[in-house]
Amino acid sequence: MRYIEPHAHMVSRTMDDYQAMAMAGCRAICEPAFWAGFDRSSVAGFYDYFCQLTEHEPKRAARYHIAHYSWICINPKEAEDPQFAREVINIIPEFLKQENVLGVGEIGLNKNSKNEAAIFEEQVQLALDHNQLILIHTPHLEDKFKGTKLTIDMLRQFGDIDPGRVMIDHVEEHTIKMVLDAGFWGGITLYPESKCTPPRAVDMLERYGDSNRLWMNSACDWGVSDPLALPKAILELRKRGFDEATIDRFVYQNPVKFMQQSGIRFLPDA
Amino acid sequence: MVELYFMDARSKLIDIAAFMDRVERSGETGDYRYREFVKALAALDAPDRAEGVLNLLSDPSEGPLEQAGAGPAVGAYNKD
Ligand SMILES: [Zn+2]
Question: Does A254 map to a domain?
Fold first, then answer.
């Protein structure tokens, strides 16, 4: 069955993972810029990473006939030094012009600090100034509820923002409703221990899937995570009696619909 | 639903019971994470349990912090 992996950190994965995803039906992978597991020491470190995302990784994906797109930003974990973060933000616009870049992301909060909030707002403005889509990371575990609320409150301060062009990722049962009620898109992340299991993801799709503003992703990265989490969730949807057309809407058409708003050529066969 | 998920849920319930026994034997019931875990069990008594558990394990404060705290999130918020 065809599907799109709308959030995966493939720079941390091997070719075996690309092969397995291709065999499972993956047509496109969207890769947000994020934290490498350690803080980078220079703007040049970010420049190289953005080149890896936009030039090198698409070539690896192409070997298995998977289209590869990326999101560019400085992540919240490295936003605690605002002056450094602003130097990184200065190099982002040249990457936003590229034909395989979807927008600004994954920006957001991590520990809900004032510096994170300031850098988040500056990158929202950057996205608006360049007419870009926005992908938002919400904090982990005990910080998620507060962080999601703060994020929505900050977004509301931007009068000219279209919530239909903003994806708020890593929603769970206690945050999904506030995200959808505010008109944003929501991402359900299938990640061991700290996020969502396939049965819980299907519970949320049962309750909120008709919004047509949800997608699922694995967010697979350098941590213990599963690049095949999405095909496993497809099996779960089948077990729960969803028909193939509805499953296709959740795992293919919804992400295509969101991504095509970027204005770049995104899988024209959808 | 019961046919589909009972065995899995049963296994997880026994895991929770065994975890609580283990913490008790190791004398760590005073750890705030464990105390918040036990409090979160109260959410099982009402509908919307998953949401309830997540809320009880969340930071209830409002407004951004002056500085990001050190270390990663741990999964429970010390409300005492
Ligand atoms: Zn991510």
Answer: yes
Do A113 and B76 lie within an 8 Å CB cutoff? no
Is A226 touching B (CB cutoff 8 A)? no
Question: pLDDT tens digits for A80-133?
Answer: 899 999 999 999 999 999 999 999 999 999 999 999 999 999 999 999 999 999
By Cβ distance, the residue of B5, B61, B65 closest to A113 is B65
Chain A residues with beta carbon closer than 8 angstroms to that of B4: 239-240
Assigned domain for A176 exists: yes
Chain B residues whose CB is inside 8 A of the A153 CB are none
pTM exceeds 0.90, yes or no: yes
- pLDDT (tens digit per residue) in B35-70: 999 999 999 999 999 999 999 999 999 999 999 888
Give domain status of residue A15, yes or no: yes
Query: In this structure, what CATH number is given to the domain that contains residue A20?
Result: 3.20.20.140
* Domain-embedded: residue A153: yes
B40 interface with A at CB cutoff 8 Å: no
A145/B54 Cβ within 8 A? yes
Peptide bond into A206 cis (omega under 30): no
Number of domains in chain A: 1
Chain pair A-B, CB pairs under 8 angstroms = 75
Task: Given the cut 0.85, state whether the ipTM is greater than it.
Answer: yes
